[in-house]
Amino acid sequence: MRYWLFKSEASTWSWDQQVARGEEGEQWDGVRNYQARNNMRAMKLGDQGFFYHSQDEKAVVGIVEVCAEAHPDSTTDDPRWECVDIKAVRPMPNPVTLAMCKSDARLTDMVLVNNTRLSVQPVTEAEWKIVCDLGGL
DNA sequence: GCCAACGTTGGC
DNA sequence: GCCAACGTTGGC
User: Which nucleotides of C are covered by protein (CB under 7 A)?
Assistant: First the structure.
């Protein structure tokens, strides 16, 4: 089991929209970045991920699960781009903000803190537990 | 709204 | 294969 973080602007695709998709989930399309795509290719069914709202909220607002492994991105004909499907698992009782992550000495190596522009990121097990703890899970 | 960081593109 | 130019993202 591995852990990930999915970043989205709430105005483009929000946690509420993700929740509304239910068990069916939704493909995480539109990624046009090799690093992010490679991360998605590495995902396995059942892997867990954080759902992060960038721009306005800048916080981890929920937990998602990979419900389909990498497949072609239906929003483009370009065969280079693939995506996974994810479904909402549960909301964070208390959203974990970027500021909280930055100020926590245990999270200084977190990709979210160091590479703000990567939209699909790996999260270590230790980081996962810390963020879940901060979020009230 | 600005700007820094970073990825991608294209000319050479 | 290098590097300058450009576009995009996202924090502030």
Answer: 8-12
Residue numbers in A 57-76, CB below 7 Å of strand C: 58
What pTM was computed for the model? 0.94
Query: Is the shortest CB-to-strand distance from A9 to strand C under 7 Å?
Result: yes
Instruction: Please identify, in words, the CATH class of the domain defined by A3-134.
Output: alpha beta
Q: Domain limits of chain A? A: 3-134
Q: What is the pLDDT of residue A62?
A: 96
Please tell me the distance from the alpha carbon of residue A121 to that of residue A119, in angstroms, as a whole number.
6
pLDDT digits (tens, 9 = 90+) for A69-97: 999 998 888 888 999 999 999 999 999 99
Residue numbers 16-45 of A with CB closer than 7 A to any atom of strand B: 32-35
